[in-house]
Amino acid sequence: MKIAIIGATRGIGLELVKAALADGHEVTALVRTPGTMPLSDKHLKTIEGDAQDIEAIFKVVEGQDVVCDCLGTAKVTQTITMFSRSTENLVKVLRPEQLLIAVTGLGAGDSKGHCGFIYDKIFLPLVLRRIYDDKGRQENIIKSRLMRWIIVRPGFLNNGPRTGRYRALTNLKGVHGGRISRADVADFILSQAKSPQFIGQTPMLIY
Fold this sequence. Notes:
alpha/beta; Rossmann fold; eight-stranded mixed β-sheet; two-stranded parallel sheet; globular
């Protein structure tokens, strides 16, 4: 399978690159600075570019079976448009048969209010509001303009091992947060790339 990964040099994206290569897939990674990609493999191709540049997005998407958007940012004090702008580019170039798997997060869309009191009432509105405002725009673009998509909402992330033992929840009644490793988020994304079971859904991933 041919898998494109946006946001591939760290976090969930890097774990997904590792998992996909280990599983024998051909990976194309969009990276802003090629030297930041710590992996080298005959089945790994890197394309230099920014996800907010439609030409770069076109190059990374062309010929792929699945496109995985794992973009992230540590910037919390300024207005964020990176997620929605890159998604606008994706919906313009993705073919109807291509599957987009996009990572947003716990607190996006209708998962808001299911994160636990401190996160919902303090951390999300005061610290992460700008990020999640744009993640909300990102989700709306995907839902309204693509045919084949899965939006993945991980819980609170850690650098634990890949276990393969986690829950993918679409019914959030009674759910109030949870944790999951970046490696297990990557495991779930790869499983959906190979055999999608959540098309048109927004599973929350927690242990």
